[in-house]
Design goal:
- The chain has 175 residues and is of the alpha+beta class.
- It has one domain: Peptide deformylase (Peptide Deformylase), CATH 3.90.45.10.
- It has 3 helices and 8 strands, in the order H-E-E-E-E-E-E-E-H-H-E.
- The protein has helices at 25-39, 130-143, 148-151, and strands spanning 46-48, 58-61, 76-87, 90-96, 99-108, 111-117, 123-129, 159-161.
- The strands form 2 sheets. A 5-stranded antiparallel β-sheet has the order 1-2-3-6-7. A 3-stranded antiparallel β-sheet has the order 4-5-8.
- Strand 4 (90-96) and strand 5 (99-108) form a beta hairpin.
- The longest helix is centred in the N-terminal third of the chain and has 15 residues, at 25-39.
Amino acid sequence: MTREVVIYPDRRLKSPAVPIGEVGPAIRRLAEHLERTARAYPHTVGLAAPQIGLMWRMIFVDCTGHKKVPDPQSPRILINPIVAAADGHEVGREGCLSLPDITANVRRATHIEVVGRGLDGRDLRVEVEGFEARVVLHEIDHLDGVLILDRVASLATDIFPRKVRVATAGSSTRG
């Protein structure tokens, strides 16, 4: 099932998500909703449960085929992801389906190690770098109620209008 993407200033986007306990049928359905909704928006590389109005700590990441990620560690569902280590930094342009009118320059770590669980309920540890690390960090921020607007150095110089607004599934602009 494809779900509607929550758009800022919806208060859910600024609220922390709740940790997931047992992985059962409801959690697997949530994972399916995340993946299907993300895939409904061309060029979307990640989506967090709060972005579809569900306040659980789960993200979907898929950088497969992205030119900036030659060897992706995705597609992947991460449950209760936590950044265990981060190194390096780089400023890069980010967009967000929940902020369809803008993009922003955001400083992020370039290499991260994330711990959490997979859909099978097993603990996992994932190392990602570059653009894929940026995507994972962006989605984890959503779980903490943090938006790219909260990460820019300057609201005056680091926010840019999108050339094409991302408003509905089927849009041709990266979300």
